[in-house]
């Protein structure tokens, strides 16, 4: 016995597909409007649940049997179809056909119950997907990503019975990979790049304080941002407050000399911010990465950018550098829809998110929990 659901835009279409695949003797167990949601409006909206005793036919057989001369002819005198997909009447009853009818009636009533249960389950599953979609979409995640995530969230919940937040966290982790903060086990030379005012210098100060004061690492700060005097002063002031050495590299070529007698656990290098259209600046970033032998590059992007500009900025800045992304200013947006959309689109590892101007407190590793926390916002 084969039981199968067929969908179509109209009842006729769903029935034609059932007849094509299972033959004209197949039995309709239930039919009606599909329980899909408004956002699947372009998909099938009529469904039939159909059963047959016959093995599924291949396309060639089906094509042959679908010929007009065969359509109205019962395939076997032994089996009397109760309801034909084509809506044809049954042959006149005999004792054998009565007995077969009774057995078949019993099977049908069982299958109808099963069909209704399946539909109820499907209904619940779709509701859960739609709810997850609404939740993600209302937080600014682009429509196509909200859909993909919602499907994965529902699937994860079905498989593990995890609660919603856990499922969202795991789904994001699966797509984005684990967070990639600075690895402190080995000496690290970390370069921070990104647009003007994105929060590079402030983030460096937060990380310097964490590495030095909390993790007792020796830290050197280097500024290559000689474009503005104030920029040098800003990092110098932070270095004095935190109590770590500070150096200025007037040209990228000065960096190897500064790092000659390597004696720091962590070197954090600040760069000037410019538009990615500034060709000279973009090539200077690459030179700095090369001469400093950066072990890690973090692209600093403000959460206030829209997702499209984030992606374009990331691709222009990050070209050939394989940076991690640090999102700043998450406190200035209601929900992190843009940054998650960009992160999912780029598929690059995330390192940190920062959520305020306070040094050193307002920074967190981009753990799944951190991202779900941002998604929850003021809930
Ligand atoms: N609200 C908010 N402001 C931040 C954050 N990070 C940095 N800023 C502010 O953004 C401005 C530019 O930061 P700065 O570190 O100088 O950016 P840079 O030009 O990339 O070095 C400063 O006023 C910072 O205090 C953050 O996470 N949240
Ligand atoms: Mg700066």
State the gist of this model.
46% of the residues lie in helices and 16% in strands. With 379 residues, the chain is an alpha/beta fold. It has two domains: 112 residues, no CATH class; 189 residues, P-loop containing nucleotide triphosphate hydrolases (Rossmann fold, 3-Layer(aba) Sandwich).
Textual characterization of the structure:
There is one protein chain. The chain is built from 13 helices and eleven strands. Residues 36-42 and 55-91 have low confidence and may be disordered. By secondary structure, it is α/β, with parallel strands linked by helices. The protein folds into two domains: 2-113, no CATH class; 188-376, P-loop containing nucleotide triphosphate hydrolases (Rossmann fold, 3-Layer(aba) Sandwich), CATH 3.40.50. The strands form two sheets. It has an eight-stranded mixed sheet with strand order 6-5-7-4-8-9-10-11, sandwiched between helices. A three-stranded antiparallel sheet has the order 1-3-2, with helices on both faces. The radius of gyration is 32 Å and the shape is elongated. α5 (143-160) packs across α6, α6 (164-176) packs across α13 and α7 runs parallel beside α8 (229-242). The chain binds guanosine-5'-diphosphate and magnesium ion.
């Amino acid at each position: 016995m084969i039981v199968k659901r067929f969908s179509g835009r109209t009842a006729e279409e769903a029935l034609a597909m059932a007849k094509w695949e299972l033959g004209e003797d197949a039995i309709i167990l239930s039919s009606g409007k599909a329980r899909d949601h408004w956002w699947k409006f372009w998909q099938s909206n009529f469904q039939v649940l159909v059963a047959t005793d016959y093995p599924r036919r291949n396309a060639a057989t089906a094509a042959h049997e679908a010929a007009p001369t065969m359509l109205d002819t019962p395939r076997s005198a032994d089996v009397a179809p109760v309801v034909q997909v084509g809506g044809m009447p049954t042959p006149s009853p005999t004792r054998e056909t009565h007995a077969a009818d009774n057995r078949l009636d019993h099977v049908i009533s069982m299958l109808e119950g099963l069909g209704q249960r399946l539909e109820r389950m499907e209904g619940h599953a779709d509701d859960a997907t739609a709810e997850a979609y609404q939740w993600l979409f209302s937080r600014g995640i682009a429509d196509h990503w909200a859909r993909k995530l919602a499907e994965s969230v529902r699937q994860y919940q079905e498989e593990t019975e995890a609660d919603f937040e856990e499922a969202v966290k795991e789904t994001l982790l699966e797509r984005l990979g684990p967070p990639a903060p600075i690895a402190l086990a080995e000496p690290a030379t970390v370069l921070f790049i990104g647009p003007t005012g994105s929060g590079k210098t402030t983030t460096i100060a937060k990380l310097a304080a964490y590495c030095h004061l909390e993790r007792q690492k020796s830290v050197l700060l280097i500024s290559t941002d000689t474009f503005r005097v104030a920029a040098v002063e800003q990092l110098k002031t932070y270095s004095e407050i935190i109590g770590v050495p500070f150096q200025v590299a007037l040209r990228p070529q000065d960096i190897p000399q500064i790092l000659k007698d390597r004696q720091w656990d962590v070197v954090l290098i600040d760069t000037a911010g410019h538009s990615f259209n500034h060709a000279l600046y973009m090539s200077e970033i690459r030179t700095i990465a090369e001469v400093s032998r950066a072990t890690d590059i973090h692209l600093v992007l403000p959460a206030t950018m829209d997702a499209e500009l984030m992606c374009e900025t990331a691709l222009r800045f990050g070209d050939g550098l394989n940076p991690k992304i640090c999102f700043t200013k998450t406190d200035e947006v209601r929900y992190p829809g843009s940054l998650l959309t960009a992160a999912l689109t780029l598929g690059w590892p995330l390192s940190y998110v920062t959520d305020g101007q306070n040094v050193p407190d307002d920074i967190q590793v981009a753990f799944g929990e951190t991202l779900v926390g941002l998604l929850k916002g003021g809930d």
